[in-house]
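tool_log.txt
---
The assistant was asked to compare two proteins side by side. It first ran the structure predictor on the initial sequence, then on the second. Raw inputs and outputs are pasted verbatim so the downstream comparison step can read them without reformatting.
(1)
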Amino acid sequence: MFVQRNQENGIIAVSSIAQAGFSEHVPDNSDELIEFYASNGGKSELFRQSDAELVRVIEDLVDILTAKGVFQYTELPPEVRNKLNSRKILRRERNSLDLLGTNEDDLPWP
């Protein structure tokens, strides 16, 4: 990996290719690089969570726009339809598993 350093010689950015500002090569298994990844893991998790939320917004938007007839679901590229279908199936399975694990006292009906 190629790294960019701050004035205190600490790693502040990493690139898989040499480019402007990333001229120093550091072995992938170096303690310094592992420490950098560990200290920035929290930010990565925030991005993952944000991405997951954004994906759900996009799925809902596609559902709304197709329901209103703005476009037909079949007009989407096959790769997009496959991804949306896979996510719907996963969500349906997860929701059905959640129902099976629900405490009977928590159900909204007698």
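(2)
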Amino acid sequence: MKKIDVPYDHEIIKELDNWRESIDLELALINSDSARHDYDSTLDKEEIMKELSKDYLIETIIPNENKHDFGKTNLVDLDIASDSHKNVSDVFETHMQFDDMKFDRVSGAFWYPPNGYMGWHSNADHDAYRLYATWSEGGLNSFFRYRDPETGAIITSWDKKGWTFRMFNCIAEQKVWHCVYSSGSRISLGFWYDRIPTSV
């Protein structure tokens, strides 16, 4: 996994902010009726952290990895197209072009309210590079945690205030297990690309 530094005044940041500001979070919460994703503000943080721990990954998830393409969640699925915001694909199909990457598609749009999370998963069902653009309201109150596929080390990468960009390669032979937690408001967008960039 690598972080990508994008200048604060880059066109991509402007487009991301314009899209984020178009979101009606109250409407999104009301309309969040996806079968796979739902939000419950009463979940116990200690129990969530157990499910996001290294021990849970090693002892429960990896031995049963075929059952864990998608992790447990406590979040609001904003969907690609929704009444609560501008259509994600329409906004980013032309604007999320980095110099050395070929844009494939938008793959997910989520809002993590306080105590929101996504459990361990690998996205290994789609062989491509995955870029996460995440926005944090406060900074250092939400994280992206992953297992380095080469060393096995568990690394917790904290979100900064505003937008953070991360990229990694999703392949079945070398799974990058990862999970997410937020104690504040966090918005996440996923994008698929053909290859990793060398510049922005």
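---
observation on (2): The first strand starts at residue 2 and ends at 3. The CA atoms of residues 150 and 199 lie 24 Å apart.
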